[in-house]
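Hello forum,

I keep getting stuck at the same step: I have a sequence, I want structure tokens, and every attempt I make locally crashes halfway through. Rather than fight my setup again tonight, could one of you with a working pipeline run this one for me? It's a single chain of 346 residues.
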Amino acid sequence: MPRSYDDLVRAASRAHVPLSVLFEVTHRCNLGCEHCYLTEGPVGRPRPSRAELTLDEVRRVLDELAAAGTLFLTLTGGEVFLRRDFLDIVAHARARGFSVTVFTTGTLLTPEAARALADLHPLSVEISVYSARPEIHDRVTRIPGSHARSLEALRLLRERGVVVLLKSPVMSLNSGEYHGIVALAESLGAGYGFDPMLIPRRDGDADPVRRLGPTRAELRRFFADPLLLRESPQPVRCLPERGEELCGSARRTCMISPYGEVFACSVHPLPAGTLRERSFHEIWTGSPLLREIRTRTVDDLRNGARPAPGLRCSALALIEDGDYLGPHRRGETMAEIRDEVRDRGA
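Reply #2:
Ran it on my machine without issues. Output:
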């Protein structure tokens, strides 16, 4: 990234400006992906028990984010197009000047919706693809035909000039499929990115991580392959910076749930407040939880915890190991494997 962009990120962190916000507009999804961290909404899981923010409420929240200085907005689900008003949400976000990234399965995208979305000029649209082979992808999603529909969405968007990205978690179900995904992305004129860090379900259930997480051998192969290590072009990354921040959570990033809850990030399990009761400004500036998180730096890590840039997640350290500032054992193990592979390559 250009230096001016890095300066913008650092200035946002120091001034506590929510530069980048992830907004889950729904938890409902027409797929049932094996590794999904949502406890409600996807196929095979309970229906959401609460009412999503209405379009008017979403518009109010977007107005408040604009006033707070947010520039980058990521709209995600669930499956965003299960909201019939999703394009209205994107239109309002673009009218407020946000740079909008959309996460979608693509399985509900029609030619008309693709045209309307392209006309709103999103920064990018990201679609999860677990394999170039339909049988592997559909095994992950548990919905036959989902692979074909996702690929058709990618083609519809590329034909209309939209920047698209294929992304995939690194897991046992699609081990060995990554080069096929890269080739597929290149054939479509799309970007690609892989993430080795599976996330436990929102209720703390680590079953997806235990069942589907990559083995040490699979991680070694992943980290040894420079073709697969290309980073996903997220607008604002959360990386530890010594003396400044433990990560970007609560300093320059946060997440909003479909029900108006504000979280420090998409992984942290505790809400800082709800936008149905208080304004975003009141929560962002006044929440004791957010204020506590943003005081922490890398220097506060304890009990032998290491920063492990790109792989340590303090929220996961809290969920999996019981201490926000303590070791994140899974991330540190991945970092050790990565470093071993790099040292051997050097």
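The mean pLDDT is 94. If your local run keeps crashing, start a new thread with the error log.
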